[in-house]
């Protein structure tokens, strides 16, 4: 169904307006988290002030996906898959903005006493509150399921929100990698939490959710999820690398006797000297320029592989069309041969008639031969003599 040019303009304006609103909301979320962190008392944390920032962040993580999904439904995309992709990417940007603001604030304020410990505590509180919020959401779905059984005409069963659950999974994976450096034991706790949440979600999906109005193939969302998860891991690794090499480790922590964590790795673990040739090679390999070159090379390799895949798909399509044309040619030839055979084959009545005519002609020929032979024989009649 083709849209009129006025409808297309109106749809484009609506999509641009919704995108602007989403960008404004994301910027507002980042500014809100930064303001709350700025008013947070680092030196003498109180009980209430400690829980303000993680509570606000957890609320945003669990409420914003519903708002973004509603805004995406107002854009009226022609393809539901496009709507899903846009929603997932926007939710991912929200989570990346929140975690990026949190990490950037603590890195900028790294001059404070034991900032790594405070950041680890912040991540711990985020993990605990996210676990509580997930269980609370399960209880809400249980209550909605009970209402559905009693008031099935007024309350409908919810559909499984792929975008929100994808955001929650990537959010927990990012916290896992950040906690792996700042608080290693926290990673074990996050793994246990994710395993428990997986079985809770599985039970919840079977009991409380209805089947989606439009079924999705796993490949349609798996590729996007893997791409976003890979991007988040790369960003986290670069952040941790920057903390290790450039941010000073202060008076507390396992690296307090070294200016940077990298110095502990080089001097303590590898026992390298600053002026040795191996140290110069390692320094050059660990430089940002080398990392940028490697990253660009990886991007070029991915682009080449993608182009090769697209070319293979195009060749497969061409070969499929050729096979289809050859099969059609074969069918045409078989039909032509059949028509020719039917035209040359005689009808049964005509076959019998031709056989009778042949027999009659053969009999006549035999009679003529007998008469000619009789004429050639000598006569024995008395009258003829």
Automatic annotation (TrEMBL):
Domain TMC: 114-219
Protein name (database record): Transmembrane channel-like protein 5
GO cellular component terms, A-Z: plasma membrane
Domain of life: Eukaryota
Residues spanning the signal sequence: none
Main location: membrane
Transmembrane segments: 12-37, 49-72, 92-111, 123-143, 175-200, 221-244, 285-305
Organism this protein belongs to: Temnothorax curvispinosus
UniProt gene name: LOC112452338
Compartments, record wording: Membrane
Coiled-coil portions: none
């Amino acid at each position: 169904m083709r849209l009129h040019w006025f409808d297309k303009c109106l749809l484009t304006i609506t999509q641009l307006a919704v995108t602007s609103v989403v960008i404004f909301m994301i910027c507002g979320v980042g500014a809100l988290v930064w303001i709350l962190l700025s008013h947070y008392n680092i030196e003498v944390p109180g009980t209430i002030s400690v829980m303000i920032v993680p509570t606000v962040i957890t609320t945003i993580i669990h409420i914003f996906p519903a708002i973004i999904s509603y805004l995406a439904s107002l854009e009226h995309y022609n393809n539901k898959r496009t709507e899903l992709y846009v929603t997932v990417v926007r939710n991912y940007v929200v989570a990346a903005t929140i975690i990026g603001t949190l990490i950037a604030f603590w890195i900028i304020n790294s001059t404070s006493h034991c900032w790594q410990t405070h950041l680890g505590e912040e991540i711990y509180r985020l993990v605990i509150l996210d676990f509580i919020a997930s269980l609370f959401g399960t209880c809400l779905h249980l209550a909605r399921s009970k209402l559905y059984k009693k008031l099935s005409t007024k309350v409908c069963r919810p559909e499984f929100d792929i975008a929100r659950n994808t955001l929650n999974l990537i959010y927990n994976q990012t916290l896992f990698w950040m906690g792996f450096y700042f608080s290693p034991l926290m990673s074990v706790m996050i793994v246990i939490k994710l395993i428990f949440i997986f079985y809770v979600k599985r039970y919840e999906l079977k009991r409380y959710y209805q089947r989606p109005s439009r079924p999705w193939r796993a490949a349609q969302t798996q590729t996007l999820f893997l791409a976003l998860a890979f991007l988040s891991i790369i960003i986290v690794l670069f952040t941790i690398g920057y903390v290790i090499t450039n941010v000073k480790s202060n008076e507390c922590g396992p690296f307090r006797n070294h200016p940077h964590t990298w110095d502990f790795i080089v001097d303590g673990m590898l026992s390298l000297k600053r002026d040795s040739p191996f140290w110069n090679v390692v320094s050059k390999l660990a430089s940002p320029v080398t990392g940028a070159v490697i990253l660009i090379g990886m991007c070029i390799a991915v682009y080449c592989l993608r182009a090769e895949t697209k070319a293979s798909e195009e060749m497969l399509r061409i070969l499929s069309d050729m096979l289809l044309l050859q099969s059609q040619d074969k069918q045409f030839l078989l039909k032509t041969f059949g028509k020719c055979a039917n035209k040359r084959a005689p009808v049964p009545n005509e076959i019998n008639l031709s056989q009778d005519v042949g027999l009659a002609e053969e009999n006549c020929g035999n009679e003529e031969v007998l008469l000619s032979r009789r004429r050639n024989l000598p006569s024995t009649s008395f009258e003829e003599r």
